[in-house]
Amino acid sequence: MSVSENIQKIKKELPIEVELVAVSKTQTHLKIKEAYDSGHRIFGENKVQEIVEKYEILPKDIKWHMIGHLQSNKVKYIAPFIDLIHAVDSEKLLKEIDKRAQQNNRIIDCLLQIHISTENTKFGMSENESNQILLRKEQFKNVNIKGLMGMASFTNNINQIKEEFDFLYNIFSKHCFLNTLSMGMSGDYKIAIDCGSNMIRIGSTIFGARNY
Ligand SMILES: *Cc1c(COP(=O)(O)O)cnc(C)c1O
């Protein structure tokens, strides 16, 4: 099936409140353009250099989401155009986003990444750290923390994935001002939606397997 057919197929099954981020990391401009021409506008990338290059070349009404780990010293490159930063995992990073957003006269939407998996390689903060930041969110005038993001463990154990997503949903639901819960990828997005996700990040199911 083509990229546009894959997107249509996923969208047809999604509850109305669930937003689809097409994860286009490593994909060519041509493939992204194909998705764009079928009407899709939200794309996710995980490398600063790649997202900047694609932003410059592809249509300007694309909403670019930074979904990967972001280093503070690279925020300045994406601050002028980024639509949503999913993986804010420290206060230091949040401060830098706030500073660069202000320099660009923007308010940048962000999600706090919570560590929910058993793998210690995956980035993210604890519930306690996120609570501390959310208590002081007014301090960051040019940042809008609109939700949370998390990645479940890479496992076939559906119950474990469910538990991890339930854990994240539970934190999310304690903060009534948050409205975006980014959880679910190609392998686990149906479980994520059952657990309350309203933003899924799908790469390989749309574009095919990545070769790395
Ligand atoms: C690559 C990536 C995805 C998409 O993964 P697929 O399994 O290809 O759908 C989602 N979220 C993040 C943070 C990623 O890095």
CATH superfamily: Alanine racemase
Q: State the CATH topology.
A: TIM Barrel
Strand order, largest beta sheet: 7-6-5-4-3-2-1-8
Radius of gyration: 16 Å
- Helix tally? 9
Form type: globular
Percent strand: 15-25%
Number of domains: 1
Low-confidence stretches: none
How many β strands by DSSP? 8
Ions, cofactors and other ligands present here are: pyridoxal-5'-phosphate
Classified by CATH, the class is Alpha Beta
Largest beta-sheet details: 8 strands, parallel
Alpha-carbon distance between the two ends:
21 Å
Structural class: alpha/beta
CATH architecture: Alpha-Beta Barrel
The average pLDDT is 96
Helix content: 25-40%
Order of helices and strands: HEHEHEHEHEHEHEHEH
Give a short overview:
The protein has 212 residues and is of the alpha/beta class. It contains nine helices and eight strands. Strand 1, helix 2 and strand 2 (42-45) form a beta-alpha-beta unit.
Description:
With 212 residues, this protein is of the alpha/beta class. It has one domain: TIM Barrel, CATH 3.20.20. 39% of the residues lie in helices and 18% in strands. It contains 9 helices and 8 strands. The protein binds pyridoxal-5'-phosphate. Pyridoxal-5'-phosphate binds at residues 23, 25, 46, 67-68, 185-187, 201-205. Residues 23, 25, 46, 67-68, 185-187, 201-205 line the site of pyridoxal-5'-phosphate.
